[in-house]
Amino acid sequence: MPDFLLNALIAGLTLALVAGPLGAFVVWRRMAYFGDTLSHAALLGVALGLLLNVSPTLAVTAGCLLLAVLLVTLQQRQPLASDTLLGILAPTTLSLGLVVLSFMQDVRIDLMGYLFGDLLAVSPTDLAWIVGGSALVLLALLGLWRPLLAVTVHEELAKVEGLPVAGLRLALMLLIAVVIAVAMKIVGVLLITSLLIIPAAAAQRHARTPEQMAIGASLLGLLAVGAGLALSWFQDTPAGPSIVVAAASLFLCSFALPRRHA
């Protein structure tokens, strides 16, 4: 197997592994629009990283984390509905990133790669960021699984039990921000949330417990990455969109199986 294909496979499988349980929380808490906002802001992080001569991956990670904190703060202090606020910030950050990039005439970047991913171009450095970031998120998610699940099931009851609800909500958003930052190289800023949501939504139909849904989402994500890479390799299709198409196909196939009930 060529080195670039092996790097792509390891990166995709690593991300799919952590996107499963995290995507389950995105589906349960209906945070898809939040993920979209962070993914759109990732392009602004790329632009600022190039402008300040900082690693784009590091700049995107820092930008997504800061935006997550800003969103939590604004949601608590402003009178607008959350979806309205997200609807303002998502296109604004994406457009601002494109405007900043347009001023850097002496910098040549693969804009399509950032928008739609370039998995087959993952370098050893990119791979280290992806594996390291995904491992940290997975470890944090395992440690916070029970408290996050309690807050997701019944937030008011979690408050009564003494759980730090606001802190847990912020922690979940920060974990999503890190995954979006490291996933940018794989599926691009416009398709990141699909890798979080589609496998989790497909697994939800046949899971009896939260743990089954998280594991099922990871397994479906792994299958989608493998199928998408195979399609890209043999048919010369773009790798990131091919993975999303494979995930969507698995989601449609899930309707062919009888739904399980607890």
UniProtKB/TrEMBL annotation:
It holds the Pfam family ABC-3. One of its GO terms (cellular component) is ATP-binding cassette (ABC) transporter complex. It is found in: Cell inner membrane; Cell membrane. The chain crosses the membrane at residues 6-28, 40-73, 85-107, 127-148, 168-201, 213-233, 239-257. Keywords: Cell inner membrane, Cell membrane, Ion transport, Membrane, Transmembrane, Transmembrane helix, Transport, Zinc, Zinc transport. One of its GO terms (biological process) is response to zinc ion. The keyword Hydrolase does not apply. InterPro entries: ABC_BtuC-like, ABC_TroCD. It comes from the Bacteria. CDD domains: TM_ABC_iron-siderophores_like. Involved in the high-affinity zinc uptake transport system. Belongs to the ABC-3 integral membrane protein family. This is High-affinity zinc uptake system membrane protein ZnuB. It comes from Pseudomonas cavernae. The gene is znuB.
